[in-house]
UniProtKB/TrEMBL annotation, chain A:
Protein's recorded name: Multiple sugar transport system permease protein
Pfam families assigned to the protein according to its UniProt record, in alphabetical order: BPD_transp_1
Organism in which the protein naturally occurs: Salibacterium halotolerans
Domain ABC transmembrane type-1 residues, every copy: 67-281
Family: Belongs to the binding-protein-dependent transport system permease family.
Annotated GO biological process: transmembrane transport
Principal location class: membrane
The entry's keywords: Cell membrane, Membrane, Sugar transport, Transmembrane, Transmembrane helix, Transport
Gene3D superfamilies tied to this protein: MetI-like
Gene Ontology cellular component annotations, sorted alphabetically: plasma membrane
Protein topology in the membrane: Multi-pass membrane protein
Keyword Acyltransferase in record: no
Domain of life: Bacteria
TrEMBL record, chain B:
Pfam families in UniProt: BPD_transp_1
Membrane as UniProt keyword: yes
Lineage of source species: Bacteria, Bacillati, Bacillota, Bacilli, Bacillales
Annotated organism of origin: Salibacterium halotolerans
Transit peptide as UniProt keyword: no
Descriptive protein name: Multiple sugar transport system permease protein
Keyword entries, A-Z: Cell membrane, Membrane, Sugar transport, Transmembrane, Transmembrane helix, Transport
Length: 291, 272
């Protein structure tokens, strides 16, 4: 159907919201990043300081470590999610007794608030009375309780596990929607050619759901850095700065150290990184469509 | 295709169901235990007590947090639908320039990290005296969740066959009347599903709620739960009771409407 103005009229309210709440603040953040702007001293002169905020960021050990921490957190989380989502979606796509129980169990972590997930897992990881140490010592795997949340590597492992638990369902659902687009005829003709299950998976299923996997990966990657809830509640970024991801550090610069100039510079760098990520994704998708 | 599913299938089945359920079930069990029993071993509450719930409801300000969350999420989901349904209709049914780039933009807004734009919003809300009000939360929620609503609804709308609408238009029915009389009644199930998804997202949101509220007058459930320990010094019984109260409605809705919500969450991804 063709109408001249109707399509745009219907879109106006949404785009007004997006411009006012996302784009204008984005530009304002950019101007903050070139200012000396301390929220603790709002009446002070917010002078232009050029690239000073950016320079002090790149000289900061803590900033660099937050980037490395984010990479570990993202790669660990998304890698684990991908393996689990591929298995789970494959199961959920079969017809069997108990399928609705299975699907409901997938939705549960999605429905629970990240903060609640974080508290639940924090309780399970508790060194003295958490169920994880109780089970491990009950079956004789460990002699002494493991201090999960207070030693560097284990704390990272713990927050990654929690994030995988909470966010895998999102990826699983996107992969399921991919599986549902595949026609059964393809598998039947593969059966006639005598292909086994693995061959069918790698030669038919995986190539066809690849666009969905890519979409799911970019969603879960951004979700992982966007949702500071889990790290905030479970470790607060600690011990030391072992689990302080980029966005959590940015939050602290803004609202604990009240430095909107430095925080603005961090945010601008974050936006650039996210932009590059999305650009790669869009390029990959348009190549995929040409092929 | 009714082939037998092997033992490997059922092993994975049991493992996945267990891993998904255990953290939440453990939270529910803990909420019925006494403080002493929480520190002891033992899986099931013995004795089974409801003191934690009584204390959370009567003594802490948790009920007002629930009310705040309810108002904020309710208004958010309604406004998201009011803005989102026309936009999704436009994307699903009408042809116009820049449709695909604009749709891509909508997709990326849904996953754009909020922390990167939060400081000017904070300044703005503070300058109009709106910090610690419902408005401070509803405004960013509507901006962030409407794109997701539109993205999912567009997928839903494309699955509705347009022929009835075309016949109505050819019979001289105006486009707005056609949308109200024919299109909307057909899509009520999907609109309700998406409304529930928007409600859930607003109910669970943490970052904006943490920064834009400062007292019980607007503080929502996730922020209250994140700060529970500070106030009650490691009272896991009350914390888990609060977590159960806060999640039971959402969990029940998702389990009961499981089929609709899954088709909603997967509708967006289909046929981009």
């Amino acid at each position: 159907m063709r109408y001249k103005y109707l399509p745009y009229v219907l879109l106006i309210p949404m785009f007004v919201m997006i411009i006012v709440i996302v784009f204008i603040p984005l530009l304002t953040t950019l101007t903050y990043s070139f200012q000396s702007y301390q929220l603790s001293d709002p009446n002070a002169d917010r002078g232009f300081v050029g690239l000073e905020n950016y320079i002090s960021l790149f000289q900061s050990e803590r900033f660099r470590s937050s980037i490395v921490t984010s990479l570990i957190y993202i790669l660990g989380s998304v890698g684990g999610m991908l393996i689990l989502a591929l298995i789970t979606s494959q199961l959920a796509n079969q017809s069997f007794k108990g399928r609705s129980l299975f699907r409901a169990s997938i939705l549960l972590p999605w429905a629970v608030a990240p903060v609640v997930a974080a508290q639940a897992w924090k309780f399970m990881y508790d060194a003295d009375f958490g169920i994880i140490n109780q089970v491990l010592s009950g079956i004789g795997l460990i002699e002494r309780n493991i201090p999960w949340l207070v030693s560097d590597n284990l704390a990272m492992l713990s927050v990654v596990t929690t994030n995988i638990w909470k966010t895998t369902p999102l990826l699983t659902l996107i992969v399921i929607s991919g599986l549902q687009t595949i026609s059964k005829d393809l598998y039947e003709s593969a059966d006639m050619d005598g292909s086994n299950a693995w061959q069918k998976y790698f030669h038919i299923t995986l190539p066809l759901i690849k666009p969905f996997i890519m979409l799911g990966l970019i969603f879960t990657t951004l979700q992982t850095i966007n949702v500071i809830d889990i790290v905030y509640v479970m470790t607060g970024g600690g011990p030391g700065e072992a689990t302080e991801i980029f966005t959590l550090y940015n939050y602290k610069v803004f609202f604990q150290y009240l430095d909107f100039g430095l925080g603005g510079a961090m945010a601008v760098i974050g936006v650039i990184v996210v932009g590059i990520l999305i650009a790669f994704y869009v390029r990959g998708m348009s190549k995929n469509m040409d092929a | 295709m009714n082939r037998k599913l092997g033992p490997l299938f059922w092993i994975f089945f049991i493992l996945i169901v267990l891993v998904n359920l255990v953290p939440y079930v453990w939270t529910v069990l803990t909420s019925f235990k006494s403080q002493n029993q929480i520190f002891d071993a033992g899986i099931f509450p013995d004795p089974f007590i409801i003191d934690n719930y009584v204390q959370v409801i009567l003594e802490s300000g948790f009920l007002s947090n629930i009310w705040n969350s309810f108002v904020v999420s309710g208004v958010t989901s309604i406004v998201c639908l009011l803005i989102g349904v026309p936009a999704a209709y436009s994307f699903a049914r009408l042809c116009f320039r820049f449709r695909n780039p604009l749709f891509m933009l909508v997709l990326f807004i849904t996953i754009f990290p909020g922390i990167f734009i939060i400081s000017p919003l904070f300044d703005f809300l503070r300058s109009i005296g709106a910090i610690d009000t419902y408005f401070a939360l509803i405004l960013p929620y509507v901006a962030y969740f409407t794109p997701l609503v539109v993205w999912i609804l567009t997928g839903f709308f494309r699955t509705i066959h347009p022929s009835i609408e075309e016949v109505a238009i050819m019979d001289g029915c105006g486009v707005f009347r056609m949308i109200v009389k024919i299109f909307l009644p057909l899509s009520i199930p999907s609109i309700l599903t998406v409304g529930i998804i928007a409600f859930t997202l607003a109910w669970n949101e943490f970052l904006f709620a943490l920064i834009f509220t400062s007292s019980e007058s607007a503080r929502t459930v996730p922020v209250a739960i994140s700060q529970f320990q500070g106030v009650h010094s490691l009272d896991w019984g009350q914390m888990t009771a609060a977590a159960v109260i806060a999640t039971i409605p959402i969990v029940l809705i998702s389990v009961v409407l499981q089929r609709y919500i899954i088709s909603g969450l997967t509708a967006g991804a289909v046929k981009e």
